[in-house]
UniProtKB/TrEMBL annotation:
Protein name according to UniProt: Pectate lyase
Family annotation (SUPFAM superfamilies): Pectin lyase-like
Signal peptide start-end: 1-22
Subcellular compartments: Secreted
Alphabetical list of Pfam families matching this protein: Pectate_lyase
Organism: Rhizoctonia solani
Keywords annotated in UniProt: Calcium, Lyase, Secreted, Signal
Functional note: Pectinolytic enzyme consist of four classes of enzymes: pectin lyase, polygalacturonase, pectin methylesterase and rhamnogalacturonase. Among pectinolytic enzymes, pectin lyase is the most important in depolymerization of pectin, since it cleaves internal glycosidic bonds of highly methylated pectins. Favors pectate, the anion, over pectin, the methyl ester.
Family: Belongs to the polysaccharide lyase 3 family.
The protein's enzyme class: lyase
Catalytic activity: Eliminative cleavage of (1->4)-alpha-D-galacturonan to give oligosaccharides with 4-deoxy-alpha-D-galact-4-enuronosyl groups at their non-reducing ends
Keyword field contains Glycosyltransferase: no
Regions crossing the membrane: none
Listed EC numbers: 4.2.2.2
């Protein structure tokens, strides 16, 4: 009887140990600090789709429960520049959006009017831009999640300040990050990119060296497959003209990788 009991206890302990290993690592520790981890490229399977008739404004924290949000059939108009009214979500300063899937039927994905946090948001098929950062200063965090099929840019940084991109998966894309090359109001912009999985892309980060932009890319933590360039520099302008490319895939003051 003792032998049988010990065997049963051992089996139960083994089962519990296996279960403990299977539990996903938390996004934050007990004090709320973000725990870095490698990007996942497993897109969620949304339980349903919600087509919005107008952009949804977020002021606090919005958890979408991995529901797919879009703007309805025919909303994507290719690389035609859109505005806030064309977005799926508009984030006010300090807002957080998490656990959301953005479907293909949209022209613009998320617009951040001030510093924002975008956590575990997945873009199934990027139209014009996935994320547009408009803050004048401060830091916006893009943590977890991913984007597919961006003909041009995933993250468009039109405002100032810093953008942090961590644990992100990007596939079949033109540029993961681009500091606006021809906005009417220009800023010095900075970006940090780490724990990224990038597959089949043209450019990870593009910055304007004449405005003092800096891209800090932790290549040692990133995984690249069929990526043409890690970082390019451009000569930006505020006249709306197409910016001139200065350097390609070259380490320098503006491209640290």
């Amino acid at each position: 009887m003792v032998s049988i009991a010990l065997t049963a206890i051992a089996a139960l302990a083994g089962f519990l140990a296996q279960g403990a290993v299977a539990v996903p690592s938390p996004v934050a520790d007990a004090e709320g600090n973000y725990i870095k981890r490698a990007a996942s490229c497993t897109f969620p399977s949304p339980p349903k789709t919600s087509s919005l008739s107008a952009a949804k404004t977020i002021t606090g924290t919005f958890d979408g429960g991995n529901v797919r949000y879009d703007r309805g059939k025919g909303a994507c108009t290719g690389q035609k520049e859109g505005g806030d009214k064309d977005a799926v979500f508009i984030l006010e300063s300090g807002a957080t959006i998490q656990n959301v899937v953005i479907g293909a039927d949209q022209a613009e994905g998320i617009h951040c009017l001030g510093p924002c946090t975008i956590r575990n948001v997945w873009f199934e098929d990027v139209c014009e831009d996935a994320i547009t950062i408009k803050q004048s200063s401060g830091t916006s965090n893009i943590i977890g999640g991913g984007a597919k099929s961006a003909d041009d840019k995933v993250v468009q940084h039109n405002g100032g300040g810093h953008v942090k991109i961590d644990s992100y998966c990007v596939q079949d894309f033109g540029k993961l990050y681009r500091s606006c090359g021809n906005c009417k109001t220009q800023y010095k912009r900075t970006v940090s990119i780490s724990n990224i999985t990038a597959k089949n892309g043209k450019l990870l980060a593009g910055v304007n060296s004449n405005y003092g932009d800096v891209a800090t890319i932790n290549t040692g933590s990133n995984s690249y497959s069929s990526l043409k360039s890690v970082c390019d520099t451009f000569e930006g302008n505020n006249s709306g003209k197409e910016p001139k490319t200065l350097t390609k895939n070259t380490k320098n003051t503006n491209c640290a990788f």
